[in-house]
Amino acid sequence: MKIALDILGGDYAPHEPLSGAVKALKKNTSLELVLVGDRAIIEPAIAGKYEDRVEIIHTTDSISNEDQPTVAIRKQPNSSMVLGLSALRERDDIAAFVSAGCTGALLTGAFMKIGRIEGVSRPALCPFLPNMKGGRTMLIDCGANVDCKPQNLAHFALMGTAYLNSLGVKNPRVGLVSVGTEDAKGNEQTLATFPLLKSLSEKGKINFVGNMEARDAFSGDYDILVCDGFVGNVLLKTAEGAFKLLTAKIKRICKTSARGMMGGLLLNGKMKKMKRSVSDEAVGGTIFIGVKKTVVKAHGNSKRIAIANAINVALDASQADLSQHIRDALEGTEELLSVK
Amino acid sequence: MKIALDILGGDYAPHEPLSGAVKALKKNTSLELVLVGDRAIIEPAIAGKYEDRVEIIHTTDSISNEDQPTVAIRKQPNSSMVLGLSALRERDDIAAFVSAGCTGALLTGAFMKIGRIEGVSRPALCPFLPNMKGGRTMLIDCGANVDCKPQNLAHFALMGTAYLNSLGVKNPRVGLVSVGTEDAKGNEQTLATFPLLKSLSEKGKINFVGNMEARDAFSGDYDILVCDGFVGNVLLKTAEGAFKLLTAKIKRICKTSARGMMGGLLLNGKMKKMKRSVSDEAVGGTIFIGVKKTVVKAHGNSKRIAIANAINVALDASQADLSQHIRDALEGTEELLSVK
Question: Which residue of A182, B17, B155, B315 sits 20 to 30 Å from the alpha carbon of B333, by its own alpha carbon?
Fold first, then answer.
């Protein structure tokens, strides 16, 4: 089982994706990678150490953030992203494709080249957030689908549950992101979603615990937060902005007095570690859940650690046979969740 | 000009609202208050000091969070909230009403008893967030309207601009909360809102700077963030949750080693101050903007400082004649923003 990696995607390509690959190969001695990128850069980096576990698909073409996704996927057949996705589709020995390249192009490409699992109305992005209990909480969708029907949200709940089940989490608690915890709180979309999730819960398909408020997103009281991609995107990015604000304020405290400076010095190492634990780096990448094979989107600004972690995300999902878990999860829900 | 205050609303009523009133009276020696609540509790607190600046509207009845808002406003004419709102409507010497009571009831009550400013499609809640530049950024709407039309969002932009103008901020920069900064990014709602805001900007009615991402909500690059009440509620509460997570993590760091403990002790005072600066307390309350007279919602968990600050929010808006600013802002936009 091999993982394909886009060496030419992301803000720090090709060096950071390549370093991330080397890092992952070093750590996991049974890992095999297919690196999609410039042979001239890749070969020196793996020479003498990892040649036997690395295959190269050579290209120097890549899709940029400025390219229109659908057009780019169609018109750039030799881009690292399209080559990676095509290899994933065609080859049984490749289990997943990881890219830090343009999100829109990757989602479009995965949709067009790999295709949805039968019955899934909308594949989704499902990153993990850190939580107060030291664990992590899935947010689904966080931006793949900005306009959703209640049935789409129900599919997110089913897929998220299947994913966590496949990772060994039993009975993951599903919360519906809303403006209050009471059953009657919400907007048109969530109010229409609520009974669907309740039905799925009664059928034993998910463990729906009700509406939740965004202030509890990090409480650890939920395993899966379900919302449309617009709301999820706002939630994820607000958290990012809030962390940034707070760490900037702490930094300022540590700079403006002798007391602060001394305190800052004492806490420095642990604070950095803490900052990392709430950053994208810790998670590495997000599965585009609902497509037939594993596609992982790493953050555009991924450096080596994030890339190595994204490879792990891909490995975990592939080893757990996520697609089969999703097929099983959807079974018997067709009538309830048919989108009229 | 008097400010009316609900002494019986909020989680810590009556003592914290009452203490907040006393605090405000002490600080602002020209402030006059109308306290709506139990005379037996209020009189001892103001005796010998503030009697000449305090009027009491006596009642012992209050609306609880469990009451259905519309029903409560209709069936509890002697509740502190209804009495306060009625006094605000009927008396010219009362400029504003402040309450930490049930949000739903207060909004419903303000809508029914005070009424919208002519031309305003939907009054909204517009709290201020702290930002990286040490200033504050308005979020409008944050929960009064969970389902919005593009025209409603345009009204929020106009009202927010009028409010900041009335507080002396010139040309406040309006951002539309979206999933990317590019003009074409967004969901159906924001994509339809974008051209309306652009038109208003071209007319000189607002200063629209484009789509914004939630990670920049605290950057200080925007003065007003426009979104529907569902998205705004998620944004506000996510920030709250993220601050809570980070401060909990820092606390843990400061508890788990001698180094950490010492660092924590050195930083303690400033950290507490910083924490307060990003809390609800610092802001105190949020205007329900778009109703004919000033109604301020203080957070349900308000203690004395928050209440005193909420009274200041009410004072500022009343002194600036916010309603007139809003009427002026709406002039000439009727055709563009008519909700079909």
Answer: B315
Residue A300 burial by Cβ neighbours in a 10 Å radius (0-12, 13-18, 19+) = middle
Rounded to whole angstroms, how far apart are CA atoms A177 and A174? 10
CB count within 10 Å of CB A340 equals: 4
Dist. CA B232–CA B237, nearest whole Å: 8
- The 3-state DSSP class for residue A200 equals helix
pLDDT tens digits along B307-338: 999 999 999 999 998 999 999 999 999 989 98
Rounded distance, CA A1 to CA A5, Å?
Answer: 13
CB atoms within 10 A of CB A292: 19
| β B294-298/B94-99 pair status | parallel
Distance CA B278, CA B270 (A): 13
- Write out pLDDT tens, residues A45-67: 999 999 999 999 999 999 998 88
What is the rounded CA–CA span in Å between residue B136 and residue B311?
18
Helix (H, G, I), strand (E, B) or coil at A76: coil
Instruction: Provide the CA A49 distance to its chain's centre, in angstroms.
Output: 30
Structure confidence at residue A66 (pLDDT): 85
Distance from CA of B14 to the nearest CA of A (A): 25
pLDDT tens-digit series, residues A313-333:
999 999 998 999 999 999 999
Predicted complex ipTM: 0.92
What is the percent of chain A with per-residue pLDDT over 90, rounded to a whole number? 81
* Pick from B165, B188, B5: nearest CA to A188: B188
Alpha helices (H) in B76-143, listed in sequence order: 80-90, 103-109
- Report CB contact under 8 Å: A179, B234: yes
Distance from CA of A139 to the nearest CA of B (A): 13
Confidence of residue A156 (pLDDT cuts 50, 70, 90): very high
The Cα–Cα gap between B263 and B257 comes to 10
| Cβ atoms of A11 and A298 closer than 8 Å | no
Beta bridge mates, A298:
A285
Predicted structure pTM score? 0.93
- How is residue A172 annotated by DSSP? P
Give Dmax (Cα) for chain B: 66
Q: In chain B, which residue's Cα lies nearest the Cα of A186?
A: B146
The token duo for B118 is 């002519």
Taking an 8 Å cut-off on Cβ atoms, the answer to whether B249 and A217 are in contact is no
Q: How far is CA B18 from the centre of its chain?
A: 20
Run of H or E residues at A5: strand A2-6
Among positive and negative, which fits the CA dihedral A107, A157, A275, B226?
positive
Residue A296 has pLDDT above 80, yes or no: yes
- Closest to A248 measured CA to CA, from B238, B262, B131, B261: B131
Burial of A60 (0-12, 13-18, 19+ CB in 10 A): middle
Is A4 in contact with A97 (CB distance < 8 Å)? yes
**Could you tell me how many CB contacts below 8 A there are between chain A and chain B?**
183
CB atoms within 10 A of CB A282: 15
A46/chain B closest Cα distance in angstroms: 37
Q: What is the pLDDT of residues B130-159, one digit of tens each?
A: 899 989 999 999 999 999 999 999 999 999
- B79 band by pLDDT with thresholds 50, 70 and 90: very high
- Which stretch of DSSP H or E encloses residue A122? none
